[in-house]
Amino acid sequence: MVPVIKAVEGDDVFSPQKIAREYREKGYLAQKEGDLKTAKAFYEKAISLDPSFAVAYNDLGIIYEAEGALNKAENNYLKAIELNPAYLSPYTNIALLCEKEKRWKEAKYFWKQRYLRDPRSSYWREEARKHIILLGGDEEVRESHLREEARELMADWEKKRKEPEDEFTRTIRNYFRGGFRSVSNN
């Protein structure tokens, strides 16, 4: 049984999208407590209220995967991607599902999508890169990663270049420029 969420009067409080997000949040809480049946009911209710709610489809896919309904899980992940290609979690979830089923080529494809769509350095972007390498690598990902590392090295170099030199560094620099003379007391 799905409890009814009560709303109070006000701006867009009664909108289906807002209520759907409340159901999704309740589903997430139930899922965290291990109550997959209740979580599933909340996610399904959220989707019925807002069929364009990509996050709820992804969450429902996680529940189906936990239940062993892998085709339903995959369909929900794909629906989440279709609804919001910028939402990254379903790429990770479907890549992991494909790996679980030993569908390596598809896993690599979804990991690559996850990697390329993440504009910042993040834990999951790095995980995607590692999985791609384990699945045989990809030239586009390799080049992207090398460009990223080069930008980081240049930024570090620029930062260090602007820092004042310590006495040791100044002495070494002068030595190699011929400015350091040794004195012998013979």
CATH H-level name of the largest domain... which superfamily? Tetratricopeptide repeat domain
- Show unreliable segments: none
Describe the largest sheet.
none
**What name does the CATH topology of the largest domain carry?**
Serine Threonine Protein Phosphatase 5, Tetratricopeptide repeat
Order of helices and strands: HHHHHHHHH
Description of the molecule:
The chain has 186 residues and is mainly α. The chain contains nine helices and no strands. The chain has two domains: 1-87, Serine Threonine Protein Phosphatase 5, Tetratricopeptide repeat, CATH 1.25.40; 107-162, no CATH class. It is 70% helix and 0% strand. It has helices at 16-32, 36-49, 54-67, 70-83, 89-100, 104-117, 123-134, 139-162, 167-176. The chain is elongated and about 80 Å long.
In short:
This protein is mostly helical. The protein has helices spanning 16-32, 36-49, 54-67, 70-83, 89-100, 104-117, 123-134, 139-162, 167-176. The chain has nine helices and no strands.
List keywords for this structure.
186 residues, mainly alpha, Serine Threonine Protein Phosphatase 5, Tetratricopeptide repeat, 9 helices, 0% strand
List the helices and strands and how they pair.
Blueprint: H1 16-32, H2 36-49, H3 54-67, H4 70-83, H5 89-100, H6 104-117, H7 123-134, H8 139-162, H9 167-176
